[in-house]
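> example.struct
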């Protein structure tokens, strides 16, 4: 039952309690569906790939070689591990570091490239 009028009070005249409850139920269900839709949130993280690159280079200069797992798990945050991995990839691509594979799964060492050591 859809009532349309130029005056809202005229629409209420022909409605009974059951009709109002059905309308309320539809509105409530629509509202609940809107609340249950996924929300995409953009966050600014307290670290960047550039910062991680600088930190990794500093650590490699101090400690001849680094274990990736130890480096990545300094902070217990999945995004931190991703930032660390991306920073390592960029440093390897720019040939500032190189990676040596170890035995086992996700076991590799990060070392400073020999040319960078000679330039310093």
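> example.seq
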């Amino acid at each position: 039952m859809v009532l349309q009028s130029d005056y809202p009070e005229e629409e209420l005249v022909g409605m009974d309690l059951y009709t109002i409850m059905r309308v309320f139920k539809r509105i409530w269900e629509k509202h609940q569906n809107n609340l249950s839709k996924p929300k995409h949130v953009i966050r600014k993280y307290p670290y960047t790939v550039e910062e991680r690159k600088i930190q990794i280079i500093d650590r490699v200069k101090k400690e001849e070689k680094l274990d990736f797992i130890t480096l990545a798990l300094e902070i217990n945050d999945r995004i931190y591990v991703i930032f660390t991995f991306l920073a390592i990839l960029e440093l390897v691509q720019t040939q500032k570091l190189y990676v040596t594979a170890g035995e086992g799964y996700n076991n590799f060492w990060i070392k400073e490239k020999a040319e960078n050591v000679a330039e310093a």
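> remarks
The chain has two domains: 1-39, 49-119.
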